[in-house]
């Protein structure tokens, strides 16, 4: 398979005609037909249905077209990055669980780094997808937590996927609640204190195992439970329903406002916030600065 063949497929779909595509590609129609048939044989599928009125995509062809366009888009990005002599664009990507201190570090990276052109990605996402992003080099860094319950499972995944992990800081678990929650005045809460309040957690999709949960102690049964997919919804429900979630205890009023408070949870377990990276990739300068800003965000909250 050649990149040129993928261009051919996309052009045929755009024009709806083998003859017109050949004209725009400046090749003969037989050459184009042969290139497509060679590709179909190599892939073991039929991409187009040919008839006197023109061509249409098969079911396999629709799927193949989607992948072809992704490859061509990535190829264009590579060429822009490395073949253009006038391009000096900074690239950086991080995937993380839903932590305000990660967002703040990302903001600091952007504000304190002298960049005229950049393409940065911050993916607040599910635990399994964080690992997958770093494994497949979609993200340079992943940020998530380990504890006594999930450590063995997740560190085995790290090893299996050639990832290394480094501890950023350790903290005792806290709950986040609305400042108007009946528990808000407490200096310490127990699991028994929480029984009648809705427990809020983040959806983990098809990998909805307790080991992938973003919340420590997720394996403990909860009388009332609500699952959400984003931080804004979770915080709104903390306020609107007097719910709670279990987290690191680190809040940022600039991002979260002053309506949420953090209270230590009386349990023995600890949260270990770590970052992961691929063992075959050294941290870039951007990555190193991002880790520095992360540590700045939490240095007074350990």
Account of the 3D structure:
The chain is α/β, with parallel strands linked by helices. The protein has three domains: 3-83, Winged helix-like DNA-binding domain superfamily/Winged helix DNA-binding domain (Arc Repressor Mutant, subunit A, Orthogonal Bundle), CATH 1.10.10.10; 90-170 and 271-297, D-Maltodextrin-Binding Protein, domain 2, CATH 3.40.190.10; 173-264, D-Maltodextrin-Binding Protein, domain 2. The chain is 40% helix and 22% strand. It contains ten helices and twelve strands. Strands 4-3-5-12-6 form a five-stranded mixed β-sheet, with helices on both faces. A hairpin with a 2-residue loop joins β1 (48-51) and β2. α1 (3-15) packs across α4 and α2 packs across α3. The longest helix is centred in the N-terminal third of the chain and has 24 residues, at 59-82. It is elongated and about 80 Å long. The termini are far apart. The mean pLDDT is 89. InterPro entries: LysR_HTH_N, LysR_subst-bd, WH-like_DNA-bd_sf, WH_DNA-bd_sf. GO terms for molecular function: DNA binding; DNA-binding transcription factor activity.
- Our count of helices gives 10
Structural class: alpha/beta
Strand elements, count: 12
Q: What does the main sheet amount to? A: 5 strands, mixed
The fold-level CATH name of the largest domain is: D-Maltodextrin-Binding Protein, domain 2
CATH homology superfamily name of the largest domain: Periplasmic binding protein-like II
Gross geometry: elongated
Number of domains: 3
Q: Assess the beta-strand content as a share of residues.
A: 15-25%
N-to-C series of helices and strands: HHHEEHEHEHEHEEEEHEHEEH
Rg from Cα: 25 Å
Helix content estimate: 25-40%
Strand order of the largest sheet: 4-3-5-12-6
Question: What is the CATH architecture descriptor of the largest domain?
Answer: 3-Layer(aba) Sandwich
Low-confidence stretches: none
Mean pLDDT: 89
**The top level CATH class name of the largest domain:** Alpha Beta
């Amino acid at each position: 398979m050649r990149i040129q063949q993928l261009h051919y497929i996309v052009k045929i779909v755009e024009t709806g005609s083998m003859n017109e595509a050949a004209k725009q590609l400046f090749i003969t129609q037989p050459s184009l037909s042969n290139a497509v048939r060679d590709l179909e044989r190599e892939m073991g599928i039929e991409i187009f249905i040919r008839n006197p009125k023109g061509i249409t995509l098969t079911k396999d062809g629709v799927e193949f077209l989607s992948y072809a366009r992704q490859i061509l888009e990535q190829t264009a990005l590579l060429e822009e990055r490395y073949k253009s002599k006038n391009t000096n664009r900074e690239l950086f990507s991080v995937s993380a669980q839903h932590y305000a201190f990660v967002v703040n570090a990302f903001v600091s990276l952007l504000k304190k780094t002298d960049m005229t052109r950049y393409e940065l990605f911050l993916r607040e996402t599910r635990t399994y997808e964080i690992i997958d992003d770093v494994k497949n080099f979609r993200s340079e860094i992943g940020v998530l937590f380990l504890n006594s319950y999930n450590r063995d499972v997740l560190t085995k995944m790290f090893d299996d996927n050639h990832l290394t992990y480094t501890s950023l800081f350790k903290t005792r678990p806290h709950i986040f609640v609305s400042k108007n929650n009946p528990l808000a005045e407490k200096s310490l809460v127990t699991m028994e204190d929480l029984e009648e309040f809705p427990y809020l957690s983040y959806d983990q999709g098809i990998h909805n195992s307790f080991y992938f949960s973003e919340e420590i102690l997720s394996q403990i049964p909860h009388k009332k439970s609500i699952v959400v997919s984003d931080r804004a919804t979770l915080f709104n429900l903390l306020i609107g329903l007097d719910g709670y979630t279990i987290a690191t205890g680190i809040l940022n009023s600039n991002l979260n406002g002053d309506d949420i408070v953090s209270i230590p949870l009386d349990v023995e377990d600890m949260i270990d916030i770590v970052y992961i990276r691929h063992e075959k990739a050294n941290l870039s300068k951007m990555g190193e600065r991002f880790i520095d800003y992360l540590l700045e965000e939490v240095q007074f909250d350990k």
